[in-house]
Amino acid sequence: MRVLAVEDDDRIARDVVAALEGAGFRVERVADGETAWFTGDTEDFDLVVLDLGLPRMDGLSVLKRWRASGRNMPVLVLTARGSWQERVEGIEAGADDYLPKPFRMEELLARARALVRRAGGLGAAVQEFGELVVNLNRMSVTRSGAPVNLTALEWRALAYLLVNRARVVSPSELLDHLYGDDAREANALEAVIARLRRKLGNGVVGTRRGFGYFFEGTSG
Amino acid sequence: MRVLAVEDDDRIARDVVAALEGAGFRVERVADGETAWFTGDTEDFDLVVLDLGLPRMDGLSVLKRWRASGRNMPVLVLTARGSWQERVEGIEAGADDYLPKPFRMEELLARARALVRRAGGLGAAVQEFGELVVNLNRMSVTRSGAPVNLTALEWRALAYLLVNRARVVSPSELLDHLYGDDAREANALEAVIARLRRKLGNGVVGTRRGFGYFFEGTSG
DNA sequence: CCGGCGCCGTCAGCGTCCTGTCAGGTCGGC
DNA sequence: GCCGACCTGACAGGACGCTGACGGCGCCGG
User: Where is the OmpR/PhoB-type domain (chains A, B) (predicted)?
Assistant: First the structure.
C-alpha cells in the first residue's frame, strides 16, 4: 500500500508520515505542488494525502490535473481553510474525502483506511486472525488474549505484511520499507522475520521461496 | 448537551441559537467577552460556539484564558471570512474547529455534532482508572483518594494522552502539542513524562519503544 | 527591590532492550 | 545428493529512554 503525502510544512509532514508508516503504509512525501503533480502523474499510489496550501502549484490545481489526465486514486484533502466553498471546490475537483486542520492523527488514519478499503484494499483498525488480534492504532497484538510484545521493527514488518496481505512481498521491498535508504543485508530481515514468528507462532508469516514473504490469515 | 453560544450580533445569535436548539442542544447565549469568560469558567458546557469580534473582551483572549485555566471543552470559533492570521491565532489559542462567516447553518450543526461526538465519545468529564480518578473539567487528579498536584505542563501531557488513549502518540506529536512552535529537545518531554510517572505511579503512562507514549487504563 | 520557592529544560550517566552479524543448521528444488 | 535459499541461537555494540542533579527563570510576598 503506497501513499503519497503532499505537505509543505515539515513538522506536520513528519508526524503524518510517521503515523502512516506506523500503520503499515509505504509513504512517499513531497513538499510542493509541481513535484506532487509530476509524482502522482507518473507513479501509482493507493492513496494521496493532499494539503491545499502548497508552494509552486496550488493543491486544488494539482488534483484537477490528475483527474483531467485520468488518475483516479483516492485523494484525502487536508486544508487549513475550513470554508464551505473550499470544500465544495475540493469535492468538485475530485477529492474523495476532506479533513480540516487541525486534525487528530487517529482521524487521519481512520479516513485513510476507509478510503483504501473503499477502493478495494483492506484495513479496519482492529483485525482478527484466528487467535491473533491486531490493533493498528495501539500498535498492539494479542495472541489467545495474551499481549505480544513486538519491537518497533517487528511491528512495522508485521503491519506491512498485513496491509499488503493480498500479495507476496519481496525481501528487497520489505528491506526498503523497514530501513529506507540505509540498507541492510538480507539476513537482517530474516532475523526480524524469525523473531516475529517465534512471538506470533506458526501460520502467520509465510515464505514463498524465491519470491518473498506473505501474511497468512489462516492461523493454526 | 449544553452549548454556550458567544455572539454579539443579535440577528446571527438568534439564528445560531435556533439552529442549535433545533438540533437538540440546550443553548446558553451571552453577548460579550467578559460574561463569556466568566460563564465558561464557572459552568460546564459540552461545546462553545465562540465569535471572535466581541465587546469588553476579545474572543481570543477569552479562549486563551479558558485554556490557561484548564478548561478543555471543545470550542468552535466563528470569525470573519478570510482572516488568515486570526485563524492561526485561534488554533494556537486552543480552538478545536473554525468556521468562517458567512456560513450555512447545516455546516455549523455538522461541525458542532462532530466536536461533541469527538469529545463525548471518550466518556464523561470524570473518569476512573484503577485507583486513579481524573476530572477533565476541574483538571484534577486523585490517587487512592489523595489529590495529586500536577503542573500545567504535566496536566496537558496527561490530558493529551488520555484523550488520545486509543493510540500511541509519537514524541514529536506530544512535543508539538506541549510547546507548539518553539521547540524543545526530546529530553524535555522525557523529563515531563518521568515527573508524571513519579506522581501518578506505574501503569498509567506507557512507553512503546521506537514509537511513543500511550495511556494505559489498566493501572496496577 | 530582594529573597525564596516552584517549575522545568538541560546535562550526564546508566540500565535495558534492540538488532545486525556471524556461524552453523535445515529445508526445498532439481 | 548437491546447492542455494532460508532459518535460528548466541552475542556484543549501540540506540533508546529513564533518572537524579543542577541551575535559570518567573512569580510572589515582604
Answer: 124-217
